[in-house]
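Narrative of activities, Objective 1.

The group set out to show that a structural description can be obtained from nothing but a protein's sequence at a throughput compatible with the screening campaign. Below is one input-output pair from the validation batch, recorded exactly as produced.
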Amino acid sequence: MERAQSPPDELEEEAAAAEEEADVTDLKHCSVLLNRLQADDKAARKELDEKEDMNRKGGKPVSRIPTFFKRPSGASQSTELPVPKKDTPVQASEPQDDAGCGSVEASKAKPPDVRDMALPVPSVRVPKIGLEAPSLFSSPEKAATTAHSSQIAAPKSWGLSGSVQNPLLTASPRPAIRPEQGQKPQEDTAEKSDVEVEEKITPTASEDSNKSESAEGSHTTEVGQVDVIMDEEAPWEKEPMNILELKDSRSSSDAESEESLADEKSEVHDFEEVKEHHEAHIVQSEFSEVAEERPEMDESTTPVAAGTPADVGSTKSTKSSGCSGFVFLCILPTTLLLLGGFGQHVWHYGLPSSVAQLTAQLELHWLEGFGLVPEPCSTDCRVHLVESIPVGLYPSSPSSRRSIADSWLHLLDRANSSVHIAAFYFTLRGGDLENADSSDAQGRKVFEHLKQLESKGVKLQIAVNSPQKSTQDTSELAATGAEVREVDLQAVTGGIVHTKLWVVDQKHFYLGSANMDWRSLSQVKEVGLSVEDCSCLAQDASRIFGVYWSVGGAHNGSLPPYWPARLSALSSSQNPLRLKFNGVPAQVYLSSAPPQISARGRTDDLSTILSVIGDAQKFVYISVMDYLPLSQFTEPLRFWPAIDTTLRAAACTRGVQVRLLVSCWEHSPAAMFTFLQSLLVLNRPPLKCDIDIKIFTVPSTAEQRKIPFARVNHAKYMVTDRVVYIGTSNWSENYFSQTAGVGLVVNQTGSDVGEGQQTLQSQAEELFLRDWTSQYTSALSVDSLDVCPRGRH
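Output recorded for this entry:
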């Protein structure tokens, strides 16, 4: 209609321009057409502008390019476009303007073969174009000018671009943005046209923006357009376009593309409201986070939009994968630890061969140890070096030390809950002998105290060697409530239980050479150690007793495949207990023999003796009944030079003084003295090793000689310039390889000794030197053939 009112000259110039434009159809840039339009007659343009101003003042819309309008507050969150209402004149006028753009003249100028350029229904197209291009139009006046220029150039530019749509009239401005996201750019014709138009329109954006801000309260068409354009963000700035949607937009028609883009804009609007509503909350689950980032869509949303069932499935899959990974990380280390522990167990102990063995293996030290809590224990101990002196020995100088019998009675008087005794045999009364007379008085007294323990509520447990030659005492004690187990160690190691150990209330204990025999209290010379109020050490001694008790249990004569944690050593040569013996600091540990029945962590008794000798710097004093570098009770005889070699090395290479006190009685092995003489030979030049040996003999009357296994020095201890060792074993091979025995090492070297205090080492040294210099000893001669006439041959 506007073209019909134009002057004839203008129509001629326009026709000429069209003909000239047809000549350059091979050009691909719309900038040429726009430049020629700028050369039009200024008068014609001015006249056209005045007519358009008059139309605008009359209430008619002037812009041929529709702008989007802002949604009313409280509008539905649906993605459907708002339907123009009769009571909204601003919104109702824009579709009319859009209808004017699709004039008959323009439709005739459009090539018939370009079906993609058909304009959609005005009621749908208006808001979608506005939504997709908010940043290009901000001024109604400038928009009118641009629309007129675009209408004149549209027929030719459309023909040049083919299927490419004019960016000002198509449904989306995204072609300028999508190439950055991996989309192929459109043809150059539409792209150049977009650039030219944008260059002419953009400079007035800020000016029109200021005008719209000043007229914010008015309801005119211009104010609503500018306000919406300035406030609303482009959808591509909030959410990137899905690649699948990009492909669909290329292959679909204009209307389908515009609907998809409008839906995305609605999604952005929905997202803004959801974000404001949940601004103060922190979503903790993965699904909730995804739900906030991709708001729920209505039924009109296309499948490619965010928040579709495919995305929800992906979220669920991600959550499931995360949970699976967490469970895997928790289960895998646990499985590896169990497999590793089981493998280590099988490596050490083999596979269980029966259900009973499997049940027993459940007490494996590193499994049972989880439930074990160390009990508090006392470290300030009272210690007494005790001895038994046979009747008639040292009559003129009675010993100032407590006797072993008195120490046993004292421990029984202090017993409140338990008494554990490990012994070679039990003959505390002289009923087995007719000529015992009154020398068994001390033994009988101890036996009566043991019988009374049950009535006092004290539990008595006794582990003795099997078989017993006399069971009179143990049977009577069992009748009073004591538990007695005969340990068949012969079936296990080929040896016997030679240990002499008492443990009272897990607080006090005795260790020494005295057997549970009335002779050991009155007819045999013995040395031992009584320790009181020393639960740290007493608990460790109780574990040694527990080993014997375990061997003599339901499966007597067999060893378990392992030793459980409750029997593991609490002290060793590497980790001694740090205690105080009579106020003097001491490092103490217990050792045991043989290795087959030594629980986890327990130092071997033979290794202990060798280490004590090797640690000596000045002297080594040894008092032992038998010293024999042979296997004493097995056939054929085996040479066993372990201790003998260590003593030779100490005396001949380190200059340590070695003093050896051995016993002579009717059961002494004759070979022992020959080996001892071989040591004495080292005293001769040029070696001159400092080795000296004496033989101790307990005098006996005619009546005393009738008492079997009596009148002998039965002590087994060693003292050096650094430590003291008190044991229960004789020094020959079988006692350390097959027979059960116990040793105790006390090291108080370098400890501060106050006035009136004395170290255990100094007490043991005095005891040894008393016997060494007594009238009951005789020096061993290298040339003597009958050293011990009463000894066995």
